[in-house]
């Protein structure tokens, strides 16, 4: 079991702003989502036939709504909101990789909002310890499928709010609401050009709107999500995902324009 601590700390930006890194989160206070697969909790069904969905509690968003079941995996951590209501959070912020199932009752239209975080060992620098490399720039990813047919794909909105590691702040090129780092060689490993600055690297933080998870939040100017392959996310063979192909059939791994440099990502989808 590759159990890793999930450090949280505070840094001071150049303008004096105090920032929680890697992201302000509700892991310590919010309910944990029910496990689909979680080595830390000893929940390791060999396939979906061993999963009793009737034992998964239903969270009421609308008491007269439809019951919807969702399966989710994040690299590494996520928080799930439906119509602004927090349904639950990932039970394992870093590793080992796990997966979750959630059930909620809601009426259409409804909005799914997800805070997704690629966790880090080097707080504020967007880097982790990986296979002997103590200055590795990790990568993110989120995938989900819901029983009403909703899947993660490029119709979702995805915006980055913490970008690192950067050799220089100008490495982020802004086109309207797009925070672009694709010119740094590519969007995935091993194409992305990694900086050599280590502890001297820069990071860009954008303020997270207080109401980003609410259904009336205007995400019309956010970019669409980018789709990624299992191989690009580096999730091939991971049992928390790989054992349950039918749970995720038709869905795609999504993130922003860069799996490598974009660390904190907000995702939204309105289901009609």
Give an overview in words:
The structure is a single chain. The chain has helices at residues 230-233, 239-242, 245-248, and strands spanning 9-12, 18-21, 35-37, 58-60, 66-74, 77-82, 85-89, 99-106, 110-117, 128-130, 133-136, 142-146, 157-166, 173-175, 178-180, 202-205, 226-228, 253-255, 262-271. The protein has 272 residues and is mainly β. The chain has one domain (9-271). A six-stranded antiparallel sheet has the order 7-6-9-19-13-16, with no helix packed on it. Strands 3, 4, 5, 8 and 12 form a five-stranded mixed sheet that branches. It has a two-stranded antiparallel sheet with strand order 1-2. The longest helix has 4 residues, at 230-233. The chain is globular, with a radius of gyration of 18 Å. 43% of the residues are buried.
Structure described in brief:
Helix content is 4%, strand content 36%. The chain is mostly beta strands and 272 residues long.
Key phrases:
single chain; 6-stranded antiparallel beta sheet; mainly beta; 272 residues; 5-stranded mixed beta sheet; 19 strands
Topology (SSEs and partners):
Blueprint: E1 9-12, E2 18-21, E3 35-37, E4 58-60, E5 66-74, E6 77-82, E7 85-89, E8 99-106, E9 110-117, E10 128-130, E11 133-136, E12 142-146, E13 157-166, E14 173-175, E15 178-180, E16 202-205, E17 226-228, H1 230-233, H2 239-242, H3 245-248, E18 253-255, E19 262-271
Parallel strand pairs: 4-8
Antiparallel strand pairs: 1-2, 3-8, 5-8, 5-12, 6-7, 6-9, 9-19, 10-11, 13-16, 13-19, 14-15, 17-18
